[in-house]
Amino acid sequence: MQPQPVLRVHELTTCFDGDDTTVVAVDGLSFDLLPGETLGLVGESGCGKSVTSLSIMRLLRAPGRIASGRIEFDGRDLLALPEKAMRGIRGNRISMIFQEPMTSLNPVFTVGKQISESLMLHQGLSRRDALAQAEKLLDLVQISDPARRVREYPYQLSGGMRQRAMIAMALACQPKVLIADEPTTALDVTIQAQILHLLRDIQARLGTAIVLITHDLGVVAQMCQRVIVMYAGRKVEEGSVDDVLDRPQHPYTQALIRSLPDFVDGQDHDVRLAELPGIVPVMTPASRGCAFAARCAQAQPRCSEAAPPAVDAGSRHRVWCWARETGPASASAANAMIA
What are the ABC transporter domain coordinates in residue numbering (predicted)? Predict the structure, then answer.
């Protein structure tokens, strides 16, 4: 029997209101997150990944607003909670690792003080006990000499250490859900591997469910069990990592995979990477059809007229594409394109 989702996002729509128009950043997004699972949200910059995370945490600022939908955590709709109740969940039961640790950490407070704040707020620890726990957390995320680092300021730490400090802060109250927004951005490959290993290790210890936001399909392959591919605020494909990466059905997913370098025996064969022409469109409430239609080599006339339906491409593998509606023949043709 499958466990109940710890987090359920249903038909989430998030908008940004301008003087002349409204931009739809997230459009009817739905997904479930199971206990102990790692779910990847993938797509290029501007597809709505980070806005989704801020919507879940209810950290959007004007002109951003959640226009509709439900976000359920342990059966409670977060969007219906008063702000005081939400503060009891945010940073406690649901935590977030932000994309830029240097700008997310307060430069005028020590790392230990910033970690201990949530412990004092949510667990009622004294300042002394919270600082001692912060030191243990820095040790948990494998920062050397935590007794010294806990008294240092963010500028005194390397990029990798700052990212580890952010992880320690997010894990301070042992949350049930951790949202990691590009946790390895701007880190070299060695530190990136260490951070990913650390997240897997901590998840194994604490059983935390993770929403991993990234544009890196290699990170998804290492970390995730399921993946959702987003484009222009919409979900275009979802399924297990093996299904989506090995048998992509949506033309956008196929384009993402074709853009990756192909290394054989450690050697690059000097092949020009495939590029995707055009830019991500700005979606408004009046937008019709598939958002990818203008950039898609497989587009049909109806793609610009109506949003595509969900098509079953296998066990829990779904794709939103008119070209796949005809079934197995189209799926075989799609796979042949990336072979």
Answer: 7-257
Distance between CA 280 and CA 43 in Å, rounded? Answer: 11
Evaluate whether 110 touches 153 at the Cβ level (below 8 Å): yes
241-260 burial: b if 16+ Cβ within 10 Å, else e = bebbbebbbbbbbbbbeeee
Q: What one-letter code names the amino acid at 62? A: A
Q: Which residues neighbour 96 within 8 Å (Cβ) at sequence distance 6 or greater?
A: 53, 57, 170, 178, 179, 180, 181
Burial grade of 168 (CB within 10 A; 0-12, 13-18, 19 or more): buried
Of 107-111, 159-163, 207-211, give the lowest mean pLDDT range: 159-163
DSSP one-letter code for 282: P
Longest CA pairwise span in the chain (Å): 66
Residue 65, beta-bridge partner list = 15
CA atoms within 13 A on the CB side of 168: 30
Read off the pTM.
0.90
Label residue 338 by pLDDT band (50, 70, 90): very low
Ordered DSSP codes for 27-92 = EEEEEEE-TT-EEEEE-STTSSHHHHHHHHHT---TTEEEEEEEEEETTEEGGGS-HHHHHHHBTT
What does the alpha-carbon distance between residue 167 and residue 184 come to, in Å, rounded to a whole number?
11
Q: Do the beta carbons of residue 212 and residue 180 sit within 8 Å?
A: yes
Residues 138, 116 contacting (CB under 8 angstroms): no
Query: Tens digits of per-residue pLDDT, 77-108?
Result: 999 999 999 999 999 999 999 877 667 889 99
Q: From CA 200, how far away is CA 223, in angstroms rounded? A: 7
CA–CA dist 216, 237 (Å, integer)? 16
